[in-house]
Amino acid sequence: MTLPPAPPGQIILLNGASSAGKSTLCRALQSALPEPFLYFALDLLLFSGVVPRRPEPAGAFAWAEQRPRLFAGYHRCLAAMAGVGNNLVADYVLEEQASLDDLKRVLSPYDVFFVGVHCPLPELERRERARGDRRIGDARSDFARVHTFGGYDLEVDSTLAPEVNAAQIVTAWQTRTRPGIFESAGPHPEASEDQASW
C-alpha cells in the first residue's frame, strides 16, 4: 500500500488519575480542534476485549507479566499512527517513571503536547463510585502518584466543564512558543511547586 506524502501527525496526550474525566475531555477536544484528531486511548485496548479476562497470580495470563508489554506496544502504536500522518488525542495514567521515559523515547520524533488533568480526590472517588465500571480504590492510588513524574505543557482542572478545558487546551496548543516537555532538554524535569499543590 502506497500512501501520499503527509507530515507526521501531532499528538495531544492527557495524563491523569482514573475517573479524572480524561476520556470525556478527549471527546470535547475532538469537537473543538480545527482539524481531525483521532481518539486513540489505552482504554480502547484494556476494556474492549483485547486483554483476555483470565487473571492469574502467575503463569501465562498473569497481568504483571503482560502489562509492561501491552503498555510498550501501545506507546509504539501511537508512534505508528502519528508516523503516517494521523493526528491523535490520547489519555493515559502514568504509574511509573519508566513509562514516561519510554513514551518520550518512542515519541521523540513527533510533536507531543502533554496535558496534566487534575481532579480533587473527593470528586475522583465520587466519580469512581458513580461510573460503576472501575475498581474502587484505583482513583485514590492514581491520585497519589500520577502527577509526580515531571512537568506538563499545560495543566487543567477537570471540575470545570470539558468544553471549557478543551478550549483552553486548543488555545494553548495553537499559541505555544517554546518546545514541549517531550522535546525539552534534561531527562526528568522536576514537578513545579504549583503542581505539587494540586
TrEMBL record:
- Active-site residues from the entry: D43
Transmembrane portions of the chain: none
Q: Which residues bind ATP?
A: G16, A17, S18, S19, A20, G21, K22, S23
Can you name one GO molecular function term for this protein? ATP binding
Q: Which UniProt keywords apply?
A: Transferase
Tell me, what's a Pfam family for it?
A: CPT
Q: What is this protein called?
A: Chloramphenicol phosphotransferase
